[in-house]
């Protein structure tokens, strides 16, 4: 009787790898982003951000726009 442990371990490793790849690919499915929602995640709104917002505004159909602004919070005033 031959030793089947290496074959079993190789099959187990292949199955684990395929399961991991399937999970990774299923998580990478992108949700279609609503074009009327414009996220701005930056501490400073500069020309690059303004160009991004204008480019997104060009693709919007309709009159409603939601701008979601994420900033690091209030900066205390200097004394």
Gist?
Helix content is 44%, strand content 13%.
Question: Could you characterize the architecture of this molecule?
Answer:
This protein has helices at about 5-25, 45-60; strands at about 35-40, 65-70. The protein has about 80 residues and is of the alpha+beta class. Strand 1, helix 2 (about 45-60) and strand 2 form a beta-alpha-beta unit.
Provide the low-confidence segments as ranges.
Answer: none
Look at the structure and give the mean pLDDT.
Answer: 77
User: Helical amount among residues, as a percent range?
Assistant: 40-55%
Q: Strands of the biggest beta sheet: in what spatial order?
A: 1-2
- What portion of the residues fall into strands of 2 or more residues? 5-15%
Q: Quickly count the helices.
A: 2
Present the secondary structure layout:
Layout: H1 5-27, E1 37-41, H2 47-58, E2 66-70
Parallel strand pairs: 1-2
Labels describing this entry:
2 helices; two-stranded parallel sheet; about 80 residues; alpha+beta; 2 strands; single chain
């Amino acid at each position: 009787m031959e030793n089947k442990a290496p074959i079993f371990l190789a099959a187990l490793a292949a199955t684990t790898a395929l399961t991991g790849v399937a999970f990774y690919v299923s998580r990478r499915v992108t949700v279609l982003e609503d074009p009327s929602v414009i996220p701005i995640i930056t501490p400073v709104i500069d020309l690059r951000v303004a160009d991004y917002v204008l480019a997104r505004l060009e693709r919007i159909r309709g009159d409603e726009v939601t701008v979601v602004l994420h900033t690091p919070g209030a900066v205390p005033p200097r004394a």
